[in-house]
Amino acid sequence: MAHGGRPARDPAQDGRLSPVRRQRRLRRRRGRRDHRDPARRRLLGAPGAGESGRLAADRRRHLCHAGDRDPGRRPPAAARGLRREERHAHGRGPLGRHDSGPGRAAQHLGGLLLDAAVNQDAGRGAVAITGANSAVGKALLAQIAGRDTARAVALVRREAALEVLPRSPRIAFRVVTYDQPERLVEALTGAGCVVHLAGILFESRTTSYRTGNVESTRALVAAAQSAGVRHIVLVSSLGADPRSPNGYFRSKGEAERLVIGSGLKATIIRTPLLLGPATAGGRSLLRTAAGRSARVLGGGSHRLRPLDVDDLCRAILGYCRESGAGVRIRAMVGPTILTQRELLQQTARLLGHDLTVRSTPVWLARLAAGIAGLVRTGGLTPAVIEVITSDEANLCVDRAPAAALTPLSDTLARLCETRAP
Asked: Is 82 within 8 Å of 42 (Cβ atoms)?
C-alpha cells in the first residue's frame, strides 16, 4: 500500500493506458514536480504575476533568444527575488498590453532580468531618471537607447506612464512614488548618477509647488544618499531663487538648495523655453502660430533664448559622465535671442502663412487670473503669467559654443514637420 492507504501504482499499467490517458498522467506528475520547485515551474513556462498563459508559452518557446538565461539552469537569485510589484509592472508586456509575438516575449523576459541586474550591479553606474515620462525624460531615454554603453533606470509614478517610454534592453523601468522611501532607495541602488526632471509649472488641487518641486526633491536627495548615488543632476529653471516672491521660482530655488546641501556631487542646469516635438513649449508655439492672428500677453515683446530639447539631453549625459566633485550651476540657453512675437511669426512662415500678433495687457491678465484664483486652484495664475513673460535675455548664462547647439531654424523646421496637416 502507498502512503495514505492508496494502492501502489503498478508501473506495468502505463503500458496498458491509452496514449491520451498516458499523456494526462505525465502532465500531472510534471505539474506536481513543478509546483514543488518554483524556479523550475517558472522556467518551464508557468504564467507569472499578471502574465497570460499565451505569453508564458511564448516565453517558454523563445527563452534562449533573450540572451540572458540558459534554460537548463536555475535563474539567478536576483531574478528569483524580484518584487511582486515589479513582476506585475512588466507582466502585461512592455507596452502595457498582452504581447504574443516571440520578439515581444523575449524582450519582456530580458527586461525582467535587466531590471534585477541594474539594481544589484552598482559598478556599472547606470543613470536613474525621475519624471521619465516628461518631454525631456523621453528625449533623454531615446538618446540613451541609441548608445552602445549607456544604461538607465526610468522612474515614473504611474504604471500607465510606461506605455509612452522608449524601449531598449539597456533601459529598466520602475514605478515608484516619492512617499515610498524604501522603494525609491531600491530603485536608485546601483545608479552612479540620478537626473531629477520631476517638477510642475501649473499647480492643481492635489499638487502644489511645495509638494511637486520641493518635497519631491527632498525625498529624492534622501533616497540618493541612502542608495549610495554619487551625483545628482537637477534640471531647474532660469530665474530660480529661494528668495523670489514668485512661488514657482522660489520652489525651484529651494529645490536647488536641497541638492546643493546634499553633500553629493551636484550639477544644476537652469533652462529657458524648451522646444521639441513633445515639449509643452513646442506644442503651445505650434498651436498659437497655426492661425492667421494670435493674441499674446504683452504683445510678445519679452525676449527668449529657446533651447532645443535634444541639446539639453546631450548636455545632461555629458555632465553625467564627468568625474570630479563639488557643486556647479549652469544656465544653458539656445544660440538665438528673439522676442516671442518674432518666434511666433518665424514659426508661422514655416507653416506657410503670415501671422498677425495682437496684445493682451499683462496687468489685465494678472488681474483676471487673481480673481479666478479665488474660486479655483491652479491653471493660469499670476505666478505662471510672470514666469512665461520673463525676459530671458537679461539673465547671466554660461553659453555653450554655437557650433555645439542646434540652430533655431533647424529646431523650428523639425517642430513644424511634426504638425499634422
From this structure: no
d(CA 259, CA 410): 34
Residue 264: CA count within 13 A, CB half-sphere: 26
Q: d(Cα 145, Cα 191) in Å, to the nearest integer?
A: 17
- Tell me, what DSSP letter sits at residue 329? E
β-strand 265-271 against 274-275: which pairing, if any? Answer: unpaired
Q: Which amino acid is at 342?
A: E
Q: For residues 413 and 347, what is the distance between their CA atoms, to the nearest angstrom?
A: 8
Task: Dump pLDDT digits (tens) for 379-421.
Answer: 899 999 999 999 998 765 655 555 589 999 999 999 999 875 5
Report d(CA 93, CA 89) in Å as an integer. 9
Q: Which CATH number fits domain 121-417: 3.90.226.10, 3.40.390.10, 1.20.210.10, 3.40.50.720?
A: 3.40.50.720
Other CB atoms within a 10 A radius of the CB of residue 409 amount to 11
The model's pTM: 0.70
Taking only the tens place, the pLDDT of each residue in 368-383 is: 999 998 888 888 999 9
At 103 the three-state DSSP class reads: helix
